[in-house]
């Protein structure tokens, strides 16, 4: 029974929360704030630990530096700590003075030397205290550990009646190397717990402030949201009850204000719709009676339309037959026209070929005519050269005649010289020999001149023959040039005629192509007309059937109009339940 009561209590609490959106919003926002504060607190705790670790590390560095200085100093002086036997000992005064200097220089709290040499744990030197020597002082665990392990040892941060400290202990050895005491340093570490305390309370105040301010903001925000929603809920309840007269006005520009404005616009539209529906239902009730009468008249008209459609269907069927026959004739004409087009296309190709050949022949004749002109010019040059050759031959003949005369005179001179040499006797024998040689040369020159004369005569005869042949060839070339020129003119006439014929064939081919395309378009149009007419015929049949169906449908519409009239009356009665201004 107790468990059941507890469950019932929990359900009632959750049901109360779920029924209030403001409580849900506040609880959600406060929960989020608490979560943020928890995360912030954990983060602060981690930061505090890290800061403490860093501070302890800094303390360790300071302690290590100072204890190192003390150890170095004690090792460097000739005096030994175990030799101190009182406050007036020179070693005591010297060592305490140096320890005091290190204390002040490094800003330390205490610097001291402890000993258990005689089995008694006591102070040997303690800065800041006059009668320190021989005072009992119990060793801590860290001090004992430093002596036993013979190593430098750091204490944790600890608190006593004098404050919060952190210490370091350095074991000291006597002349025999045996541990007899320690050198220690205390440093003020109160900043660590003070920092922890400051961070803790600062975090606590921040968290508390955030929770308080967050709760206040959550309450204000939830109230600013839920209050207009409550007004909107009340307005919605009135609309649900049929009251459309109350306006909802919220002077807000946020989403809730937009929702309220949209709801009020919907209310006004619904109010206008109810007015229109009320007016329309009245009009519809009146109109339905007229529609019922019109439906009867439409039934009678549909019967007449069905009869007319049957007559039109018979006429369209005859048109379809005529169009089909015309389409067949046009298709045959189109086929014949295609054949003529193919033949004209062949003629066009032949005309192109003849035109090409005539153009080639004209070009060839033109080239031949140009070549004949060149030959004529060359024949003229040859004739001129032959005339010059004949003239040169005559000049050479005259020169040969002169040479022959000179040879005859030379022969006479040689003969006279021989005669004169014979008269001289022995003195003229040499001259006679020369004269004989000259005579031989003269005779040889005369013979050569005669031979050349004969050759020149033959050459002159050949030149005359060549000149005569060139003259005849020149006349033949002129005659051939005349004929070729006439042939060129004839080819030009042929080419012009073929070109004109080709142009006419092209025009004819273009005209046939256009006619062919026109017939194709006509054929397609006739086929389309035939198809459309057939479709119209089928359509008329369908329309006839549709008119029959329409007649039956009109009967159904008449019954439906009767039902609509009753529904309009019911709608008018339902609209009256709404309250509009």
TrEMBL record:
Q: Where found in the cell? A: Cell membrane
Domain of life of the source: Bacteria
Q: Which InterPro entries match?
A: HAMP_dom, MCPsignal_dom
Domain Methyl-accepting transducer as annotated: residue spans: 294-551
The answer on whether this UniProt entry bears the keyword ATP-binding reads no
Which positions fall inside the HAMP domain? 223-275
- Annotated coiled-coil positions are none
**Regions crossing the membrane:** 21-42, 198-221
Q: Name one GO cellular component term.
A: plasma membrane
Q: Which UniProt keywords apply?
A: Cell membrane, Membrane, Transducer, Transmembrane, Transmembrane helix
Classification via Pfam families: HAMP (PF00672), MCPsignal (PF00015)
Q: Which CDD domains match?
A: HAMP, MCP_signal, PDC1_HK_sensor
Name a biological process GO annotation: signal transduction
Mind telling me which PANTHER family this protein's record contains? LYSOZYME-LIKE PROTEIN-RELATED, METHYL-ACCEPTING CHEMOTAXIS PROTEIN MCPB
Q: Which family does it belong to?
A: Belongs to the methyl-accepting chemotaxis (MCP) protein family.
What name goes with this protein?
Methyl-accepting chemotaxis protein
Organism this protein belongs to? Paenibacillus antibioticophila
Classification lineage: Bacteria, Bacillati, Bacillota, Bacilli, Bacillales
């Amino acid at each position: 029974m107790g468990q059941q009561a507890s469950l019932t209590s929990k359900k009632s609490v959750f049901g109360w929360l779920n029924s209030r959106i403001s409580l849900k919003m506040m609880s959600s926002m406060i929960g989020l704030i608490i979560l943020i504060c928890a995360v912030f607190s954990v983060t602060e705790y981690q930061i505090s630990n890290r800061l403490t670790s860093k501070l302890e590390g800094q303390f360790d560095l300071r302690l290590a530096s100072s204890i190192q200085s003390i150890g170095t100093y004690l090792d460097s002086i000739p005096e030994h700590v175990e030799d101190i036997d009182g406050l007036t000992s020179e070693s005591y005064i010297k060592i305490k003075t140096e320890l005091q200097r290190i204390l002040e220089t490094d800003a330390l709290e205490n610097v001291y030397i402890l000993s258990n040499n005689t089995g008694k744990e006591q102070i040997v030197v303690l800065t800041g205290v006059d009668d320190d020597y021989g005072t009992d002082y119990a060793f801590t665990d860290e001090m004992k550990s430093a002596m036993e392990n013979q190593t430098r040892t750091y204490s944790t941060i600890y608190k006593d009646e004098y404050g919060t400290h952190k210490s370091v202990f350095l074991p000291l050895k006597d002349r025999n190397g045996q541990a007899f005491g320690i050198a220690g340093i205390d440093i003020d570490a109160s900043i660590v717990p003070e920092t922890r305390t400051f961070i803790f309370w600062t975090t606590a105040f921040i968290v508390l402030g955030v929770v308080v301010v967050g709760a206040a903001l959550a309450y204000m925000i939830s109230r600013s949201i839920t209050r207009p929603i409550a007004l909107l809920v009340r307005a919605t309840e009135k609309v649900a009850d049929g009251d459309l007269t109350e306006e909802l006005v919220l002077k807000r520009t946020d989403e809730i204000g937009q929702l309220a404005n949209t709801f009020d616009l919907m209310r006004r539209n619904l109010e206008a719709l109810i007015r229109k529906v009320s007016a329309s239902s009245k009009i519809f009730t009146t109109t339905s009676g007229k529609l019922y009468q019109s439906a009867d008249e439409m039934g009678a008209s549909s019967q007449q339309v069905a009869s007319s459609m049957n007559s039109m269907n018979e006429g369209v069927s005859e048109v379809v037959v005529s169009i089909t026959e015309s389409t067949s004739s046009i298709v045959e004409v189109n086929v014949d026209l295609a054949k003529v087009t193919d033949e004209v296309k062949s003629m066009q190709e032949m005309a192109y070929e003849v035109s090409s050949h005539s153009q080639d022949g004209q070009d060839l004749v033109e080239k031949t005519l140009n070549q004949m002109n060149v030959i004529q010019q060359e024949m003229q040059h040859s004739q001129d050269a032959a005339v010059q050759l004949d003239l040169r031959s005559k000049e050479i003949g005259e020169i040969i005649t002169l040479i022959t005369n000179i040879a005859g005179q030379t022969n006479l001179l040689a003969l006279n010289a021989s005669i004169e040499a014979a008269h001289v006797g022995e003195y003229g024998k040499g001259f006679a020999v020369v004269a004989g040689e000259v005579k031989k040369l003269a005779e040889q020159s005369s013979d050569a001149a005669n031979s050349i004369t004969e050759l020149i005569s033959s050459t002159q005869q050949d030149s005359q023959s060549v000149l005569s042949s060139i003259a005849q060839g020149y006349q033949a070339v002129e005659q051939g040039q005349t004929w070729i020129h006439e042939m060129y003119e004839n080819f030009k006439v042929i080419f012009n005629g073929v070109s004109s014929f080709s142009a006419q064939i092209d025009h004819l081919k273009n005209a046939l192509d256009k006619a062919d395309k026109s017939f194709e378009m006509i054929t397609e149009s006739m086929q389309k007309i035939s198809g459309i007419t057939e479709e119209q015929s089928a359509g008329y049949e369908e329309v006839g059937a549709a008119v029959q169906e329409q007649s039956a449908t009109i009967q159904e519409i008449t019954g439906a109009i009767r039902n609509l009239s009753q529904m309009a009356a019911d709608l008018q009665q339902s609209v009256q339940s709404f309250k509009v201004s």
